[in-house]
UniProtKB/TrEMBL annotation:
UniProt source species: Pseudomonas duriflava
GO function terms (MF aspect): aminoacyl-tRNA deacylase activity
HDOD domain: residues covered: 197-397
Protein name: HD-like signal output (HDOD) protein
Length: 468
């Protein structure tokens, strides 16, 4: 089984240390490129290293499962297990000259637990230690690697977790149920009284009134922005950024509006910045998570570029498109605010399940997703329905309901950025159907993405204005 799958380009090999280990143990294997056709009958092994004061623990489970840390704690009696910090993991990998963590318990002296359902399939695909290369091993042969490992059942099959992606009429009921679960009491009050979400700032209220006023002028907008010195400084800094390459010095908010950004972008930018600061950034976050404002600003830039790449007949309102990208992850802040004792648990599960979208994890742990609660709050604050749709349906690439273009653009932008290491969760290829629906050619989308990534230094300068 040691033949290598053939592709049109040279396929990288598993590291020499891993190949020697497999040969020494007498375990037949076949190297498979992740870009090649993965055998349908094969189960992919997800590997994670946890640690606490008692030491490290290697955990193996099927990739079609969510690792439930609560069940693992009950099974092991170790309640403080968390994913090994990325810096420490990097040192471990470097020691063995590996790029990714292999799913081979014999490589480490650490104790190992595996979900027994891992052995239900006839064939397994295991990380080899080299990015993009898997080892195909028969289940019987892999079982020989588990002689010192302990079995258990601590995963939750993904087929049992059903995030509500497309039924917004049920959001309020599901949010109330989730809150009720975590407060251990039945909620009789209205949802907006129960959640105690902070009120909008005066600046946000003024900007919202301007948005719906068809007679609002540049002077009106500049006047509102200038009443908030911090916001005014950010708008001027935005317009002065190398990203926009404005000629001459930007001396005022009016200058920023008239000469560089335009009325539509500034009013939506100001609204997004103001709403984004309504809720403070949580002190906890997944180790590998992109900082909130970096993800927001890069997403807004890519959404804006994608919208401009659309045919004029299909092109949505640019300001709302930008705002949708800027606030797409706002539900993350709301979750941290509404469920503070449990937000840390969500973070730890995101770390332990890098192969999953956060929607599966949040649905499993609290019964709702950040998209549901974020969109609900936007509607409660009487934000535009286009923005509500952008947040609510951003994870459904097939959504074609009202204002679908905004949600579809956010989906495309976030998945293009995930492939660049910005954002959280697995990066999925954007479907040809979605490209066609938006009227964007894949090569144009890549050009847009590379334009934004090429301006990374300028965008990082904007990000640096915000708390991390």
């Amino acid at each position: 089984m040691t033949d290598v799958a053939h592709t049109s380009e040279p396929t990288p090999h598993a590291p020499d240390s891993i190949r020697q280990l497999m040969d020494t143990l007498g375990i037949p294997y076949r190297e498979v490129s992740v870009t090649a056709d993965i055998p349908e009958h094969a189960q992919r092994v997800q590997t994670i290293i946890l640690d606490d004061s008692a030491g490290t623990l290697m955990v193996l489970f099927p990739q079609d499962q969510l690792l439930d840390l609560n069940r693992l704690s009950e099974m092991t009696g170790r309640s403080s297990l968390t994913v090994m910090h990325p810096d420490r993991l990097t040192r471990v990998l470097n020691k063995h000259e590996l790029n990714v963590l292999p799913g081979l318990p014999t490589l480490s002296n650490a104790p190992c637990l595996y979900d027994e359902r891992l052995l239900h399939d006839g064939c397994l695909l295991v990380e080899s230690g080299e990015q993009g290369v898997l080892l195909e091993v028969s289940t019987e042969d892999f079982r020989r690697l588990l002689t010192k490992a302990n079995p258990g059942r601590f995963g939750e099959p993904l087929e049992t977790i059903h995030p509500n992606l497309d039924r917004p009429e049920q959001d309020q009921t599901e949010i109330a149920r989730a809150v009720s679960t975590f407060t251990a009491r039945r909620i009789q009050q209205r949802l907006d009284e129960t959640l105690e979400i902070p009120p909008l700032s005066k600046t946000a209220e003024k900007i919202i009134k301007l948005r719906v006023n068809p007679e609002a002028t540049t002077d009106d907008l500049a006047g509102v922005v200038e009443t908030d010195p911090a916001l005014a400084a950010q708008v001027i800094s935005w317009a002065s950024s190398p990203y926009y390459a404005a000629p001459g010095k930007i001396r005022s908010v009016e200058d920023a509006i008239v000469r560089v950004l335009g009325f539509d972008l500034v009013i939506n930018l100001a609204l997004g910045l103001t709403l984004g600061k309504t809720l403070s950034l949580p002190k906890d976050r997944p180790h590998t998570a992109t900082p909130y404002w970096k993800q927001a600003i890069f997403s807004a830039a890519v959404v804006e570029g994608l919208a401009r790449a659309m045919p004029r007949a299909l092109r949505p309102e640019m300001g709302i498109s930008y705002l949708g990208g800027l606030l797409h992850n706002f539900g993350y802040l709301v979750l941290a605010y509404v469920f503070p004792p449990h937000f840390s648990l969500i973070c730890r599960h995101v770390e332990a399940n890098p192969h999953l979208d956060h929607t599966k994890i949040e649905q499993h742990l609290i019964g709702i997703t950040r998209e549901q609660i974020g969109a609900w709050l936007m509607r409660n604050w009487e934000m535009p329905e286009e923005l509500v749709a952008a947040l609510r349906f951003q994870n459904d690439p097939t959504y074609q309901g009202e204002h679908a273009v905004y949600a579809n653009l956010v989906y495309m932008a976030t998945h293009l950025l995930r492939a660049q290491g910005i954002g959280e969760g697995p990066a999925r290829a954007v479907s040809p159907e979605l490209y066609e629906r938006l009227g964007i050619k894949p090569e144009k989308a890549q050009e847009c993405l590379q334009r934004v990534m090429g301006a990374e230094a300028a965008l990082r300068e904007l990000v640096s204005q915000f708390p991390h």
